[in-house]
Design brief:
Blueprint: E1 2-5, H1 6-11, H2 13-23, E2 26-29, E3 35-38, H3 59-72
Parallel strand pairs: 1-2
Antiparallel strand pairs: 2-3
Length: about 80
């Protein structure tokens, strides 16, 4: 974990952000001793982001399944 002074952080902001991205967080210390943490924010994953399922099913077979379901059950419509 890297510690920067406030002046160094101002002068080297791009490097500070790169270091925070690589290591997880960086500390900035003011002259009066107070410290602050700069950490990268992780983007939340989408619940719809799922891996694909590789199934040996063709388009014609999928259409047949949908038609069969619609004929049997009105809820499939």
């Amino acid at each position: 974990m890297e510690v920067y002074t406030y002046s160094d952080a101002r002068q080297h902001l791009a490097a500070l952000l790169d270091t925070a991205a690589a290591t997880g967080k960086v500390i900035i210390r003011r002259r009066d001793g107070t410290t602050f943490v700069v950490a990268p924010e992780s983007a939340p994953a989408s619940p719809l982001d799922v891996p694909p399922v590789m199934a040996p099913v063709g388009v014609a077979e999928i259409i047949d399944i949908i038609r069969e379901c619609r004929e049997r059950e009105p809820a499939c419509r």
